[in-house]
């Protein structure tokens, strides 16, 4: 990749690609958005908005995430019967594989759900129900469809097909690359054989790919309309399909539950003088405040996709385990981007271990109700 997109050349790029005329872009404004890729938000003179993304190479090579998002767009376009779920996703106007640039219509009047929760502290179960219904609709619509599976498994690299991060074997070289705090994470992570065995079993023997999955189904990838209770548009949209694949639906459901738990764990009052139990009890966002939304999301999912429990009797247990694995991913992201592992990370790791190693006992902790109550509220039987 030689062309590097920036705030000065983005309008010229759109004209050169034949997407707009210079007159249409006059008086347009551009804003740099913080993200792992290079993202520019463009507001055009007609008040419409575009999101322009470029994946910058790491060691002269890109990971192909934008290619994967374009493949998702091609998937939706190729199968006309998927029109029923098309409105949930962003519209892609342009993709340039050589320069790794993608142009999408921007969803105005929407905010990502993590920002909404941070500002409003409104954990309405109606929002969670919308999310569970949306996710289940995507999974149910693509479930065990051979043509869809063939599409996603064709020409897929090893990196794209494996959404899981594991620590792997440690070598002495790590001591020169990480701080003492981060080395503590490595020590804790590898201390318990049962912990590592649970992760290994979940990501290999227990992994059950059977439908389209997002693979990054977090609160900040879910958009909520600012007038979600009154709008005639879709109240919920799902963005950033860069990691999508043919995969296990339990992973998506576990990831969004972990995202809710992250609100709780991120609000802990932590201190070296306090026990884990004290920190969890003094959280600024108590788990009890989030449990109704987590339960409502899961109940809505099962109501929309009852076949998943009928075909996979241990589905809910694996969801809990994937929730624990997603919390490990959250810690990994903090280490990667913030270069930190603190007392909050230690608490998160302890919760993740409980979810992975004791999923049946953890159900009531996560949902605030037993497994039988959760299923009964879904109007289903195991």
How would you describe what is shown here?
This protein has 18 helices and 10 strands. With 382 residues, it is an alpha+beta fold. α15 packs antiparallel against α16 (343-357) and α16 (343-357) packs across α17.
User: Average pLDDT value?
Assistant: 88
Tally of alpha and pi helices:
18
Annotation, overall tally of beta strands: 10
List SSEs in N-to-C order: HHEEEHHEEEHHHHHHEEEEHHHHHHHH
Tell me, what's the shape?
A: globular
The whole-angstrom Rg is 21 Å
Tell me the distance between the termini: 52 Å
Secondary structure layout:
Elements lengths: L9 H7 L5 H4 L3 E5 L4 E6 L5 E6 L10 H14 L4 H4 L5 E5 L4 E5 L4 E3 H8 L4 H18 L3 H8 L4 H4 L18 H10 L3 H11 L7 E3 L8 E4 L10 E3 L6 E3 L1 H17 L10 H6 L5 H18 L2 H5 L3 H24 L4 H15 L1 H9 L3 H7 L5
Top keywords for this entry?
382 residues; alpha+beta; five-stranded antiparallel β-sheet; three-stranded antiparallel β-sheet; 10 strands; 49% helix; globular
In short:
The protein is of the alpha+beta class and 382 residues long. It has helices at residues 10-16, 22-25, 65-78, 83-86, 113-120, 125-142, 146-153, 158-161, 180-189, 193-203, 249-265, 276-281, 287-304, 307-311, 315-338, 343-357, 359-367, 371-377, and strands at residues 29-33, 38-43, 49-54, 92-96, 101-105, 110-112, 211-213, 222-225, 236-238, 245-247.
């Amino acid at each position: 990749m030689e062309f590097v997109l920036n705030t000065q050349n983005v309008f010229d790029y759109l004209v050169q690609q034949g997407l707009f005329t210079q007159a249409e872009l006059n008086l347009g404004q551009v804003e740099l958005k913080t993200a792992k890729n290079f993202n520019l938000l463009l507001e055009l003179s007609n008040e419409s908005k575009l999101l322009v993304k470029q994946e910058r190479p790491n060691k002269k090579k890109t990971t192909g995430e934008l290619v994967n998002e374009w493949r998702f767009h091609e998937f939706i376009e190729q199968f006309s019967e998927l029109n029923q779920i098309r409105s949930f996703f962003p519209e892609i106007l342009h993709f340039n594989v050589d320069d790794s640039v993608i142009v999408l219509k921007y969803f105005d009047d929407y905010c990502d759900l993590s920002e909404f929760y941070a500002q409003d502290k409104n954990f309405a179960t109606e929002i969670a129900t919308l999310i569970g219904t949306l996710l289940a609709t995507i999974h149910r619509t693509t479930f065990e469809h051979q043509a869809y599976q063939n599409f996603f498994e064709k020409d897929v690299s090893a990196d794209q097909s494996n959404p899981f991060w594991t620590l792997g074997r440690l070598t002495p070289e790590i001591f020169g690359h990480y701080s003492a705090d981060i080395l503590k994470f490595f020590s804790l992570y590898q201390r318990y054989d049962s912990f590592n065995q649970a992760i290994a079993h979940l990501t290999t023997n227990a992994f059950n790919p059977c439908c389209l999955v997002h693979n990054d189904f977090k609160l900040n990838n879910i958009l909520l309309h600012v007038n979600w209770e009154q709008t005639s548009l879709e109240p919920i949209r799902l963005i950033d399909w860069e990691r999508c694949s043919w995969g296990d639906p339990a992973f998506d459901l576990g990831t969004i539950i972990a995202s809710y738990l992250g609100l709780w764990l991120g609000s802990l009052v932590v201190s070296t003088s306090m026990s884990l139990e004290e920190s969890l009890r003094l959280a600024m966002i108590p788990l009890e405040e989030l449990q109704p939304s987590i339960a409502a999301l899961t109940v809505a999912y099962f109501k929309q996709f009852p076949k998943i429990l009928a075909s996979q009797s241990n589905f809910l247990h694996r969801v809990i385990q994937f929730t624990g694995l997603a919390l490990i991913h959250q810690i990994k992201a903090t280490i990667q981007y913030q270069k930190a592992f603190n007392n909050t990370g230690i608490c998160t790791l302890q919760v993740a271990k409980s979810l992975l190693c004791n999923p049946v006992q953890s159900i009531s902790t996560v949902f605030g109700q037993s497994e039988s109550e959760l299923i009964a509220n879904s109007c289903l039987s195991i």
